[in-house]
Specification:
107 residues, mainly alpha, 2 domains, two-stranded antiparallel ribbon, 5 helices, AzlD domain-containing protein, Brnchd-chn_aa_trnsp_AzlD, membrane, transmembrane, transmembrane helix
């Protein structure tokens, strides 16, 4: 049997996860955001993808300059080119994964 403490922790965790994702939709359902906020939010997907990509390509060490990982850096260039040309993120992700797998297999 599940204890009330564990059940309460699961319910509280679900709420903490769910509320920040649903609350913005509820708050902006009937009221539009200012143009400045909409313009700012339009840049978020690009910056998030760049941050995730940079963290995958660079290997940081404390007290040293970051080093670029050679295989991942080589794979990023054609992947970005493909994403810019086709505007298809799913295809770019698949090509990037295949490129990294192929380069790791060769090297």
């Amino acid at each position: 049997m599940i204890s009330t403490y564990v059940f309460g922790a699961i319910v509280l965790s679900a709420l903490v996860t769910w509320v920040p994702r649903v609350l913005p939709f509820v708050l902006t359902r009937y009221k539009a955001l200012p143009d400045l906020v909409v313009r700012f939010l339009s840049f978020l997907p690009l910056t998030i993808i760049f941050a995730l990509t940079l963290s995958s390509v660079v290997s940081p060490k404390v007290g040293q300059l970051p080093k670029f990982l050679p295989i991942e850096t080589i794979a990023v260039l054609p992947t970005f080119f493909l994403a810019a040309k086709t505007k298809n993120i799913l295809l770019a992700v698949v090509v990037g994964v295949v490129l990294v797998a192929g380069l790791r297999f060769i090297f």
